[in-house]
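Lab manual, section 2.4: Encoding a predicted structure.

Procedure: take the sequence of the chain (208 residues), apply the prediction step described in section 2.3, and record the output as structure tokens. A sample record is shown.
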Amino acid sequence: MIISVVSQKGGVGKSSISRTLAVEFTRAGWQVLLADIDAQQTTSNRWAEKRRNVAGIIPQVTTAAFATTPLALDASHDYDLTVIDGAPHATRGTAQAAEASDLVIIPTGSSLDDLEPSVLLASELESNGIARGKIAFALYKTTSEAQQRESRETLEGYGFQVLPGAVPAKTGYIDAFDRGFCATETKYDNLNHQAGILVSAVHALVRK
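Recorded output:
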């Protein structure tokens, strides 16, 4: 099973969602590889090192950095699930990951500056043969329920599915990731719950 988390631009939650999925599927008993394709920054790889070095953070997440998407896809055969944390912009590797994936997640903020390139990426993937039903948007860094609703309606208006839940713009999430935790492991139950809705939706899709 392969889930790719891809984006047209940085800062929309790609790595944060990738890490959270890797943690929660590992917690559920899956053998998971978090594959970091951003060879220059390797942010997920460095996050996993932080997680290993802080006593008491379980489960540990198997993470590796790969110079190319095909190398990550080769490694995926040894795991129940590979979560591909793609490069922070659309590349040939993005298309390769999407083609091999059972589910492609596109995180997006709720501003037009985030929504427009995200829809463009989804449309490009579809034009390259990726089935529309395999693409799902995840709302990230939203600031209000009204904003979430408007963003969801905009994306659904283009005919794409949007995952239930959203990860709002809260410093509790930033603090958690800075310390090696994920979006369902913050100090605040309500933040964990909101991120957990998104994770549960992904789990339901890949278990169909």
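Check your result against the sample. DSSP finds eight helices and eight strands in the chain.
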